[in-house]
Amino acid sequence: MQKQLAAVLMLILSQIGCAHITATSRTKDIQMSQNPLPAGEIDRETASKVAKDDATKTFGSLQDYSVITCEQGAFWRVFFEPMEVRNPERLIEYVLGKRGGIIMARRDLSLNIQANEKRSSAASVSETDAIKIASRDATLAYGSLQTLEVTVCELKRTWRVVYAPNEKLNGGGPEYFVEKETGRILDKRYYQ
After folding, report:
1. Which of 37, 76, 77, 177 is such that its CA lies 20 to 30 A from the CA of 52?
2. What CATH code would you report for 38-112?
3. Quick count: other Cβ atoms within 10 Å of Cβ 97?
4. How many whole angstroms separate alpha carbon 95 and alpha carbon 105?
5. What's the CATH fold of domain 117-192?
6. Can you give 132-169 as a three-state secondary structure string?
7. How far apart are CA 157 and CA 177, in angstroms?
8. Tens of pLDDT along the chain (192 residues)?
9. Rounded distance between C-alpha atoms, residue 173 and residue 53, angstroms
């Protein structure tokens, strides 16, 4: 019970940027220390560094990956995308809260990108097209999208289209990876 209480307290205090808590298993004491991250909102560079540090510990070397950071309301989305085309393409995605830099989500995805040697340098699917493609699917799954805000992140070979409720509302919305070359939806997630 005390461990659970300490975990809840740690989560609450870390959300508001007050402290970093460590619960020791033998004594069940709670020790307070300074939060190593800024108490206010973190910037793009800090979000990238936090995600890169965690990704290096979790996935190993990232020397063959480029980093793309995208702003989404109260969050930063940080992507690690391979510099060279591979199939399936391994893409690592982080979602960090701007307040305190807490990692909210981490995904390791395999996307089946169409390997086309004659790719043109320009994407055949624009940002607007990617939104339309995702919107068609999202409308079928959710009905009205009026309460959701759209965020689009441009990666090298895909568009990341995220529908999320206003920060004042709870829940989530649909999220997509749309291939730039073909307009195919490579990955989709539905959240309530």
Report:
1. 177
2. 3.10.450
3. 18
4. 5
5. Nuclear Transport Factor 2; Chain: A, (3.10.450)
6. HHHHHHHHHHHCCCCCEEEEEEECCCEEEEEEEECCCC
7. 10
8. 444 433 433 433 333 333 232 222 222 222 323 344 445 899 999 999 999 999 999 999 999 999 999 999 899 999 999 988 776 778 999 999 999 999 999 999 888 876 554 555 455 899 999 999 999 999 999 888 888 899 999 999 999 999 998 776 667 889 999 999 999 999 999 987
9. 28
